[in-house]
Amino acid sequence: MFYKIMLKGLFVAEEVNTGRQWSFDFAKFVAIVGMVLVHTFIYIWDEDGLEQGFQYRLNNIYGGVLAAPVFMFAMGVGVAYSRKTDARTMFGRGLKLVLAGYLLNAVRCLPQLLLWKAGYGEQHYGWFIEEVNLFDILQFAGVAFMLFALLRWLKSSPTVILLVGLALSVFGTFVRSVDMGSTWANLLCYPFIGIHVGNIWTSFPLANWFIFVAAGYWTGKLIRRCTDMDRFFALVTPVSGFLFAVCMIYLTRNETGMFSDINDDYFYYLTPFDAFVCIMGAFLVAGIGHFLIPHEPHVLQNEVRQISTDVTRIYLIHWVFVCYLVGGFMDGVLDLYPGDLFLLLVGMAILVASAWLARRKPFSHIKI
Question: Can you tell me the distance from the alpha carbon of 253 to that of 20, in angstroms, rounded to the nearest whole number?
Answer without folding.
Answer: 39
